[in-house]
Design goal:
23% of the residues lie in helices and 15% in strands. It is α/β, with parallel strands linked by helices. The strands form 3 sheets. A 5-stranded parallel beta sheet has the order 8-5-1-9-10, with helices on both faces. The N and C termini lie far apart (39 Å). About 2% of the residues have low confidence.
């Protein structure tokens, strides 16, 4: 049965600053790059099925409304996850086979990630203090690259590896479809998310990546 547009909590809800998990600062290795699928991984919808352009952001830029009045936003933990991984020095990327790549990129530009201090506990003193503590377009977090087009995830990761120079064994991939475990043939560690990216999923994914490296 096709997935329906999720109505579970998203990043438009009142934000309670997250405490970053200790796994990000325990002195053990972290993946050099964490890569995310988009649909039902970073946000609870299929951008090529549920979204009808044009899009219009709300005043806070934490949600967009399409022409039929549906509202779209990230899963609630995503803003703090992006900030937390970036603070830990992990590069971030996207691998999506959506049939609406331009719409996916537009969504990443229109959806802004709130300031660090509003989504991470004690975050106001990081990243050089308040000077850099401001909202950013979500697309600006993905310094490892955006591979958003209809294709195999294998091709996406080959491109990400070439762009970044990071070995696939140093990459952790979050996706909601088990068929995309084929990326592991390259050496990628894939962690299957059941209901969108949460901090619990991120921690478990890092633990699995470490387990495979005998850390």
């Amino acid at each position: 049965m096709p997935k329906k547009l999720s109505k579970q909590p998203t990043s438009t809800a009142e934000t309670i600053p997250a405490t970053l998990p200790s796994i990000l600062s325990d002195g053990q290795p972290l993946p050099r790059a964490v890569v995310f699928d988009l649909d039902y991984t970073l946000w609870p919808f299929w951008v090529d099925t549920h979204v009808y352009p044009p899009l219009r952001p709300n005043a806070a830029h934490n949600a967009c409304t399409d022409k039929v009045g549906e509202t779209f936003a990230f899963y609630s933990d995503v803003p703090s996850v992006l900030h937390g991984l970036a603070l830990a020095g992990v590069k971030l990327g996207v691998a999506s086979r959506t049939h609406a790549p331009d719409l996916g990129r537009e969504m990443l530009k229109l959806l802004h990630v709130p300031p660090l201090s509003s989504v991470v506990e004690g975050g106001g003193g990081a990243e050089g203090g308040s000077r850099k503590d401001k909202a950013k377009k979500a697309i600006e977090f993905f310094d490892a690259g955006l591979e958003i087009y209809p294709s195999s995830k294998i091709r996406h990761f080959e491109a990400l590896g070439k762009k970044t120079g990071i070995p696939h064994t140093e990459m952790l991939f979050f996706d909601d479809e088990s068929r995309n475990r084929d990326t592991e043939s390259l050496g990628v560690t894939m962690w299957l998310v059941r209901d969108g990216v949460t901090w619990n999923e991120v921690v478990n994914g890092i633990k699995e990546w470490r387990r495979r490296r005998d850390v």
